[in-house]
Specification:
With about 375 residues, the chain is mainly α. About 80% of the residues lie in helices and about 0% in strands.
Length: about 375
């Protein structure tokens, strides 16, 4: 595929910056907000799982439309506008049923935006796909800034500020989506074979399973980590700082991963990342009372998300080409952050209530270790 000139670096980066700034408020603090409304661990797990669950279907539906129309950025714009409009309904009432309805509707569009934008970014980069991390790093910086600032704000303001800040960020995302040029994705007129032929390959099946397991293991972290720290007497500012530290470590990875991939290869980087992720969940399970250990555990976010995500994006981009590209990125989002994230959030809510926090993170460690074994067996490059 030919490279489109010029690459709108700052406009692409701005979208990632705002998108992940919103995620930097949603992921660490939404559980705390739901807890403030009086919901228990099971209900919190269910409500957060809803956001993940729509990623199972929504990205692939919109990916199919994007691949067959070549209008990926129009989909991103539509998704951004409707995400803002629907999320505003969160202020109508705060019952469990209403919040569930709003989150299903909101996240159906919210989860459509990023995979299509990832495909757009890759199309702009063309043969320079290894420079993806130089653009994506702005998303990590946005997450760091948002999580740290929100943590400080909550030291002096009520947790009810969380949905207000999110609405402002979704408005900014809507505006940033209109800064990126449209029609960047070529419409593929020639047949390139059924996508099922790609999905039948053993390495592709294994990759999808690995992505599912990795995000499944993150369920307790994304759903209960802030609550877990709060229960062990960590202040809001410290909780925010720990979240921010993890993403700072991720930023470092994005600055160097384009050098590591050609040198070490996908398989070896994945194995190291997954073994370090196993160690991370074990440390959080058994040593939460030691702030210095939690600092080290957060640095391992460089492996559990940074290395894993960069390698996975590259593998999916190389595996799903041509008219399958949008659906390839959508499958990554659907299987990992969608199915894996939803199952992880839902079952961690049940485990948290039934088995306790330590056992829940121990299960997460066992699951991601299984992913490491599958990587060693099936991933070739």
């Amino acid at each position: 595929m030919e490279k489109v000139e010029p690459v709108p670096y700052w406009r692409l980066s701005a979208f990632y910056l705002v998108y992940f700034s919103a995620l930097g408020v949603l992921v660490p603090y939404w559980g705390l907000y739901l807890q403030s409304l009086g919901f228990d661990a099971r209900q919190i797990g269910e409500l957060i799982a809803i956001i993940m669950a729509t990623k199972i279907v929504a990205p692939y539906i919109w990916g199919w439309i994007g691949d067959h129309t070549g209008k990926g950025m129009w989909i991103v714009r539509l998704a951004s506008v409707l995400s803002f409009v629907i999320f505003a309904l969160i202020f109508v009432e705060q019952s469990y049923g209403w919040l569930a309805f709003v989150m299903v509707s909101f996240s159906f569009f919210w989860n459509a935006a990023l995979p299509q934008f990832e495909a757009t970014t890759m199309n702009f980069l063309g043969a320079d796909e290894h420079n993806y991390s130089k653009i994506r790093v702005w998303g990590s910086l946005g997450f760091v800034a948002a999580v740290a600032i929100m943590g400080l704000m909550l030291e002096h303001h009520a947790i009810s500020m969380v949905p207000v800040v999110l609405l402002v960020l979704y408005a900014a995302l809507m505006l940033s989506s209109f800064l990126v040029p449209v029609d960047t994705q070529p419409l593929h007129k020639h047949q390139q074979g059924s996508i099922l032929l790609v999905l039948k390959q053993p390495q592709v099946i294994a990759l999808l399973v690995i992505c599912f397991l990795v995000q499944f293991s993150h369920g307790p972290y994304y759903t209960f980590y802030s609550i877990y720290l709060q229960e062990h007497d960590y202040q809001s500012s410290m909780i925010g700082a720990l979240w921010a530290l993890g993403v700072i470590a991720e930023v470092v990875v994005f600055l160097y991963i384009h050098r590591w991939l050609p040198k070490y290869g996908h398989r070896d980087l994945l194995i190291v990342a997954l073994l370090l992720t196993t160690a991370r969940w074990l440390l959080i399970a058994y040593m939460v009372q030691y702030p210095s250990v939690m600092v080290f555990a957060q640095l391992l976010h460089a492996a559990s998300f940074g290395v894993f995500h960069a390698v996975a994006i590259s593998l999916f981009h190389q595996t799903f080409v041509g008219k399958h590209q949008g659906r390839g990125q959508a499958l990554y989002a659907s299987v990992s952050f969608g199915a894996g994230g939803a199952a992880g959030s839902l079952l961690s809510g049940l485990s948290w209530q039934g088995l306790g926090s330590t056992q829940t993170f121990l299960i997460a460690a066992a699951i991601v270790f299984m992913a490491a074994l599958l990587t060693r067996r099936y991933i070739k490059s």
